[in-house]
Amino acid sequence: MFGVYDPTAPQKPQEQMTQEEVAEQGAKSMIAFMQSCPGKTAMAGVSGFGLGGFFGLFMASMAYDVPVGTTAVNHISQLPLKQQMKLQFTDMGKRSWNSAKNFGYIGMVYSGVECSIESLRAKHDIYNGISAGCITGAALSINAGPQAAFVGCAGFAAFSVAIDLYLNSEAASPPSNDYDE
């Protein structure tokens, strides 16, 4: 039913298409976009933004003792309840927004670099992830100097290897002691 979408192939005018043909053409163009590097980069940025926002909200809700805008002298427990809630929700919003921006940015950079490397090498293997992790880690920490860039490169590459190995372990054969035959 779905073949490879070729935007250069002659198309019937949309007025002459049935509703199913219009839907199929729309689905094919959406799939083609999602498989392109800009599409993958955008999806990684959006999903990273959402995950980062949720993570920031969760982490901020765990640190409710002293919000960012207060000082040690003005402890939150000494404030009225309405002001405590206002400070906490403001702090949760700031932390959630910052975390969302950071996760989205990292996701976009990593995904874009990995897709570009995969396109250049014309291979899909673990070395794409290692290279993308190294480049992303170095790029994120280059302003702190060459030593930080090296550590960022090594850290992101190691994390990328760990994630790739974990995700690819699902495709491996089951262990020999598996009795679910």
Automatic annotation (TrEMBL):
Membrane topology annotation: Multi-pass membrane protein
Presence of the UniProt keyword Membrane in the record: yes
Main location, first listed in the record: mitochondrion
GO cellular component, one term: TIM22 mitochondrial import inner membrane insertion complex
One GO molecular-function entry: mitochondrion targeting sequence binding
Subcellular location: Mitochondrion inner membrane
Coiled coil (residue ranges): none
Keyword field: Membrane, Mitochondrion, Mitochondrion inner membrane, Protein transport, Translocation, Transmembrane, Transmembrane helix, Transport
Pfam families from the UniProt entry: Tim17 (PF02466)
Single Gene Ontology BP annotation: protein insertion into mitochondrial inner membrane
InterPro entries: TIM22
Sequence similarity: Belongs to the Tim17/Tim22/Tim23 family.
Subunit-level organization: Component of the TIM22 complex.
Role played: Essential core component of the TIM22 complex, a complex that mediates the import and insertion of multi-pass transmembrane proteins into the mitochondrial inner membrane. In the TIM22 complex, it constitutes the voltage-activated and signal-gated channel. Forms a twin-pore translocase that uses the membrane potential as external driving force in 2 voltage-dependent steps.
Protein's recorded name: Mitochondrial import inner membrane translocase subunit TIM22
Organism: Candida tenuis (strain ATCC 10573 / BCRC 21748 / CBS 615 / JCM 9827 / NBRC 10315 / NRRL Y-1498 / VKM Y-70) (Yeast)
Lineage of the species this protein comes from: Eukaryota, Fungi, Dikarya, Ascomycota, Saccharomycotina
